[in-house]
């Protein structure tokens, strides 16, 4: 009788003696993570979820660490786009479980890229998929498409955990599961005995929540990571090997950021194409890559030099451009500004001509 009572107490305490620490004890961020995806904190005590976490914690800690390293330049971009779209930055963990932050990985079902888009879904969100160019592998454009897709799924289902499951198995299957279960409760939909959803999807949502809890409990602050990546324009037909040499970086590293261009060659179909480079390489790019055709401008008119400028209270881009003899568009391109809003004390990189650069240098030396 005594042993039976002890077993019951252990079971009711969240399997503490069977597995060690409970989810709330092991992952201090659990309530925050669950709330971000419209899940009640009590889900942390669901037996199926507890069992999954205890069995897979080590495996997904390794996935998290590898993905974080591989996504060094990509994570800040994904998080920034999510925040600008008004979404939770915790959705940045989604490409971790989708692709491990591989930009060109392909699944057996032909899903591809950071966000694992199927060709049909990619086309729906205006991502080009053809022989020489696959935008599913473009981390910036694919992230923009993924955000639109997630927003549409959330608008349809009203809860983020339903949107995430629909991202995995499709809207039809989630709608059918809700109808069959008679509820959209997560505990019911993911119940291992009722099997309202496919095995893969029941594990998918648990996998995502576990990785998010691991990351958030380690107090990783994506906002403290440097700018990450930016997009710049190059001429059609450009060999990325040449750009890598120009930027003093490994060819493989640049190709991983631009795996949408097969064989590392930018297509010839248009005059200009966007490529992705590390933000820290932006100055090198503008110093050495000239988009102007030969003879299209005087050498003295080319903005091949840069000066720094700290924004003062009340200054506008127009006033700054006029001060340095450059244009607003050149300043926004050089600093990767999405709009014309600039805050006081911000450091800007200003492209200037050689003549203006020497003039400014002369004034400083006086």
Describe it.
This protein is mainly alpha-helical and 366 residues long. The chain has 3 domains: 12-223, Orthogonal Bundle (Lysozyme); 226-289, no CATH class; 292-366, Membrane-bound Lytic Murein Transglycosylase D, Chain A. The protein contains 19 helices and 4 strands. A two-stranded antiparallel sheet has the order 1-2. Helix 10 crosses helix 11 (171-181) and helix 14 packs across helix 15. The chain is elongated.
CATH class of the largest domain: Mainly Alpha
CATH topology heading of the largest domain: Lysozyme
Number of E-type strands: 4
State the low-pLDDT regions, or none. Answer: 1-19, 220-226, 291-301
What does the average pLDDT come to? 84
| Strand residue percentage | 5-15%
> From the helix content, strand content and strand pairing, which structural class follows?
mainly alpha
Largest sheet: 2 strands, antiparallel
* Anisotropy-based shape: elongated
Strand order of the largest sheet: 1-2
End-to-end C-alpha gap:
94 Å
Label this structure with key terms.
Membrane-bound Lytic Murein Transglycosylase D, Chain A, single chain, mainly alpha, elongated, 7% strand, 366 residues, Lysozyme, two-stranded antiparallel sheet, 4 strands, two-stranded antiparallel ribbon
């Amino acid at each position: 009788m005594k042993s039976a009572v002890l077993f019951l107490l252990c079971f009711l305490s969240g399997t503490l003696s069977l597995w060690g620490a409970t989810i709330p004890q092991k992952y201090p961020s659990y309530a925050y993570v669950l709330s971000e995806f419209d899940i009640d904190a009590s889900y942390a005590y669901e037996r199926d979820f507890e069992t999954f976490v205890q069995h897979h914690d080590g495996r997904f800690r390794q996935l998290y660490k590898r993905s974080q390293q591989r996504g060094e330049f990509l994570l800040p971009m994904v998080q920034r786009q999510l925040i600008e779209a008004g979404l939770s930055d915790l959705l940045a963990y989604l490409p971790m479980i989708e692709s491990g932050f591989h930009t060109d990985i392909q699944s057996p079902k032909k899903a591809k890229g950071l966000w694992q888009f199927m060709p049909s879904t990619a086309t729906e969100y205006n991502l080009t998929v053809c022989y020489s160019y696959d935008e599913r592998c473009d981390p910036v454009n694919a992230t923009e498409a993924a955000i639109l897709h997630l927003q549409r799924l959330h608008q349809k289902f009203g809860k983020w955990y339903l949107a995430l499951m629909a991202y995995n198995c499709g809207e039809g299957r989630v709608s059918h599961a809700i109808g069959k279960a008679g509820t959209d409760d997560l505990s019911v939909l993911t119940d291992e005995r009722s099997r309202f959803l496919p095995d893969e999807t029941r594990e998918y949502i648990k996998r995502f929540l576990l990785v998010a809890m691991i990351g958030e409990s380690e107090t990783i602050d994506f906002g403290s990571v440097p700018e990450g990546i930016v997009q710049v324009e190059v001429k059609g037909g450009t060999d990325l090997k040449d750009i890598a040499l120009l930027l003093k970086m490994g060819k493989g590293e640049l190709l991983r950021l631009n795996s949408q261009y097969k064989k590392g060659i930018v297509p010839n179909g248009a005059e200009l194409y966007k490529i992705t480079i590390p933000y820290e390489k932006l100055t090198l790019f503008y110093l050495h890559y000239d988009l102007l055709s030969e003879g299209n401008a005087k050498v003295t008119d080319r903005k091949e030099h840069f000066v720094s400028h700290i924004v003062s209270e009340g200054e506008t881009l127009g006033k700054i451009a006029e001060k340095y003899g450059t244009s607003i568009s050149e300043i926004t391109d050089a600093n990767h500004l999405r709009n014309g809003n600039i805050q006081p004390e911000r450091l800007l990189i200003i492209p200037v001509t050689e003549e203006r650069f020497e003039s400014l240098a002369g004034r400083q030396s006086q």
